[in-house]
Amino acid sequence: MPRTLMKGNEVIGAAAIRAGCRAFFGYPITPQTELPEYMAAQLPKVGGVFVQAESEIAAINMVYGASGSGARVMTSSSSPGIALKQEGISYIAGAELPCVIVNVMRGGPGLGGIQPSQSDYFQATRGGGNGDYRLLVYAPASLQELADLVQIAFDKADYYRNPVMVLADGMLGQMMEPVEFRDDLPRMELPAKDFAATGTMGERAPRVINSLYLKPEELEEHIHRLFAKYEAMKVNEPLVETVGLEGAEIVVVAYGTTARIVRSAMATLAEEGIHIGLIRPITLFPYPMGVFETLPDSVRQLLVVEMSMGQMIDDVRIANEGRLPISFVGRTGGMVPTPALVAERVRELLGATAVGGATEGSGATAYQGVGTGSTTGGAR
Amino acid sequence: MRTEKCILAGFGGQGIMLMGQLLAQAALDDGLEVSWLPSYGPEMRGGTANCSVIISPEPIPSPVIAHDATSLIVMNLPSMEKFVPDVVPGGFVLVNSSLIEEKVTRSHVEAIYVPCNEIAQELGNAKMTNMVMMGAFVEVTKCVRPESVLGALEHKLGERKAHLMDGNRAAFARGAECAVAARA
For A63, A232, A299, B154, which has the most beta carbons within 10 A of its beta carbon? Predict the structure, then answer.
């Protein structure tokens, strides 16, 4: 298929329809509104259902219902809207139903702003809803990857019978890039949807979709079943891109569009003869822990870069297991870090004899890995 | 070719976003990599509008132009004041001199003045102002083929508005001529 120039939000819609999504429930919010707009125009053409719900809460519960009837279903919103959906997401995870949820992140907390952000990392990976559950979380960095991962997300949701989140940001939603809808994406062998409430026709026992277990023994057993799935995800699903790790003293960890800004910084630094590496997690849950265990000996420190105050640092620290010192630089609130800011921080770290000290106005904070023997170790 | 990093800026309604999209589509049709990033926010007709287009033979890392624009199109005065400092030395600044009387005061950039509104009006359609500028821009930067831009516009207009192509072709050509004359 030829490459076409599309806007990120529309890419998500087109990819979903290609993946067989035939039901969308949502509510407008900047910077993702072009997505419901696209679905409103396109879903009826393929016999699908589009509803602009009265609220985000209504929309996610429509997703719950549609998924319970066996439909391939999606909802999308931006940060505060995703916050509203959390109750429904927890219920859907509890009831073991598949769906795809797209968050085109903007600055928070609260209503925050409308410019790009990555400050919903905790919300996506730790669960904003109640209870013992996890979401499979994809973090694309380009519109091509967005097109691919949205399609893959539907299969994964069905396979695990669990909500899958695609975590984008305002930049990815609003920008245009050439995209090719590939025919060679990996497709999974999927189980029959024998949970779907489609009417018994008087010929079988009713199927009950519920997340309520009043007997704690049963709830515990149910949760253990959920966690067996999450453990399987940890084995089978981590995705990561690494660039130039060999020979690098500093390895940057960044995801989504921020990783692209880091790539620009890498090019600038390379011109100065400074070689840095990049770890770009593509799944945020499960986090690609393994890559941190096999870093080359040249790597002396890690630098996390995010459009937030550093929410991914927790996962980097877990993956790092105290081996290397960890620093951070980023912008937040809708401000986008520049390659120059990242490059400057790298030069600073290479020049510094000890890791430490915050750069004023850049949101930069130094973090020391646990167990390095430093007195500031583990400071947060 | 070098990587072209172009900021296009003006006020809402001047066809800034469309200019950027035509440029991006032309680059794609020329077999190049491209990204188009709009400013977004509580925008409105008459408010400021800008977008960033990066064109390169290589995959594009950051889609953000951060003080390293190789070219700038300014369609109104506030845009010129805001974005001229973002152009790298040796870069181009294309100024819509119909609406901007001021000159670019910065050194080490090449300013090209194009009376876009006047030319478009002369040709009988004020809405072609942006295509005049596109003609000048492509002539100066040569980052895409002129036919590719016109082809992208033809596709965008579709059959229903195909009759507008002749006027736009003329506008594009006049913009290019104006740029040649300005640099002679």
Answer: A63
- Cβ neighbours of residue B56 closer than 8 Å, sequence gap 6 or more: B1, B3, B4, B32, B33, B34
Query: In this model, does residue A374 exceed pLDDT 80?
Result: no
Amino acid at A129: G
Q: What is residue B48's predicted lDDT score, i.e. its pLDDT?
A: 85
Peptide linkage before A31 cis (omega within 30 of 0)? yes
Query: Mean pLDDT throughout A63-71?
Result: 98
Classify residue A53 by its DSSP letter.
Answer: -
* pLDDT at position A375 over 80: no
Residue A194 φ then ψ, to 5°: -80, 10
CA distance A358 to A345: 10
Distance between B96 CA and the closest CA of chain A, angstroms: 26
Contact B24 A5 (CB under 8 A): yes
What distance in Å separates the CA atoms of residue A16 and residue A7, rounded to the nearest whole number?
14
| Model pLDDT for residues B137-153, shown as the tens digit of each residue | 999 999 999 999 999 99
Axis-axis angle for helices B129-141, B16-29 (nearest 10): 40
**Domain spanning A4-236: CATH 3.40.50.300:** no
Buried b (16+ CB within 10 A) or exposed e, A166-197: bbbbbbbbbbbbbbebeeeeeeeeeeebebee
Indicate the burial class of A222 (C-beta count within 10 angstroms; 0-12, 13-18, 19 or more). Answer: middle
In this prediction the ipTM stands at: 0.95
Structure confidence by residue, pLDDT tens digits, A1-10: 789 999 999 9
* Nearest residue, CB atoms, B38 vs list A174, A267, A339: A174
Q: Where are the domains of chain A?
A: 4-236, 240-367
Closest residue to A3, CB basis, from B28, B35, B37: B28
Q: Which tops the pLDDT comparison, A214 or A128? A: A214
| Helices of type H across chain A | 8-18, 34-42, 56-68, 79-84, 86-94, 121-122, 143-160, 170-174, 216-236, 256-271, 290-293, 313-320, 339-351
B37 — contact with chain A (CB < 8 Å)? yes
Domain A240-367: which topology? Rossmann fold (3.40.50)
Q: What is the largest CA-CA distance in chain B?
A: 46
3-class DSSP state for residue A270?
Answer: helix
Domains of chain B, first to last: 4-183 (3.40.920.10)
